[in-house]
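Need Peptide MFS transporter's 3D structure for a figure. Predict it.
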Amino acid sequence: MVDTPTADSRGEPDISHVNPAEQKTWFGHPPQLARLFTTEMWERFGYYGMRALLTLYLTKHFVFGDRQATGLYGGFTALVYLTPLIGGYLADQYLGSKRAVKFGAIMMSLGYFVLCFGGQTATPYATIDGQRTTIQVEQVAGVETRYVVDGATRLKIKGNDDKSVDLLAADGTVTRHIAPDGFQSDADRSPLFVAIMLIALSMISVGNGFFKPNISTMVGELYAQGDRRRDSGFTIFYMGINLGSLGSQILCPFLADAVGWWAGFGLAAFGMLFSYALIQFDGGKLNGYGEPPVRAGQKDRALGIFTAATLGVPIFYLLFVNLMNMAPPEPGSGIVGYVASLSLMGKLLFGTFTIAVPGILIWSFLKGSRQEFQMMLAAMVLIVFNVVFWTLFEQAGSSLTLFADRNTDLHLFGIPISAGQTQFFNAFFIVALAPVMSILWSGLAKRNIEPSIPVKFGLALMGVGAGFLFLVWGTQFVGPDFKVGIWWLAGLYLIHSVAELCISPVGLSMITKLSIARVVGLMMGVWFLSISVAQYFAGMIAQVASVETVGGQVTNLKVSLDTYSGVFTLISEWAIGLGLLLLLLSWPLKKWMHGVK
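Structure prediction for Peptide MFS transporter:
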């Protein structure tokens, strides 16, 4: 038998493959991008819909105080950014991205469904000078009023500017004046349903760790090395994040108010299930992408990994319990007392970060060249400032949401909206401004005047401060109801969105360019660790803005307005000051970066 000669042996071009120009594309990109785009969009729909409700759910349904609620929120978002380090590694080594995404989607959707089971609203009570009394909540025309029940008499609770409390009779006369420390509010809440809620947050944290990093990895696999469409493909993909969050931050809070908390969380769960279905039932469109690594003699460890991940849920549960029981630091205890008062989660995050940053720099000094050390030093300085940026920026889901609920006139073009829905402003402005900022940076780059990465970081920090300063300015124009117009809050989110677009798109790219090749993966881990640390400390900052409540409601809106104004002013001063410092450091940092842009 004579072998049939191949095209190559005849010196002729191989035309047996499909011409790429004849393949179907999606806006000039691989058609699989459309499915991954939609998968990410629905996953973010679920996550941001749930996040828009979480702080309000904790303060209104479980009637936690501000300190517990914002601390728990910060701890949860910290884990959300930390777990992808583990999920990404396990997918790379054993699972493959596709199976990791499916498992993550199932865990997250189950977590959202579990949140639907919150039980009855907690029953508030007050302890007055050591004696427990019943709190009654009355709602008239959408306005809630709290009363102390004294036998057959109801006494309206009125908070004073000095944080003392007056109890008022039906005719408005003061029947009793209570000193600031003599009135303590809490609630009877079911330990079972609190545990269910914490288990749900633990499941979401685990699931996110498997989903978040690996869906992005699958997008990267669509493009060959050197394909110039890669950056624009990721730009399209990330637009799905903001489209998903934009829709959910409107719909989930609406359902929570109109139907019940379970409906808002249920919609988030269905969005997550739809995301799972797009991957699970792909009709073979994603064959060959996100597959497990093939190594000779390696057994499939998926079952063991999924089992271990499920066992991680009770570990996270215990971390949340420890976080909720965290006591505030003693006055005058200083930084040592502050660190000692951190929860176990806080100590682990803070300790790991403070060891990793100098440790890697020492290794770089000893093992790298002078240029490599300088580039790593520049990266670490920017990572530290990145912590500051996200700590202040991520007040959106905690203190800013509570400010919206308590001290904002929630009417948009005359249409009433809920406090949770105000978070949609950020997603809307990102979608609207991302193309504008991209054109701006490109135009400046063509003229060789595009700001350097340190300058962009500095401008972002100053932008965060300017946003808070804008809102504080708006508090000067409140009426007798002590509520700012919603456009002041929208203005803050507009300024913050511009700041986000200065720092967020360049962060990961900066790390990959500045890191020594041998530790680039480790540096990526430190970058995500920095965001996780920032999320945790964002919760700590929100705790500083805590306002005393009775049954989830403040009793003096002037006190809450003054508290928020003071904290937001302090935030703006620190942010603008540190932004100016980074601008001053931008010259040596640019020199240490050795041409990296």
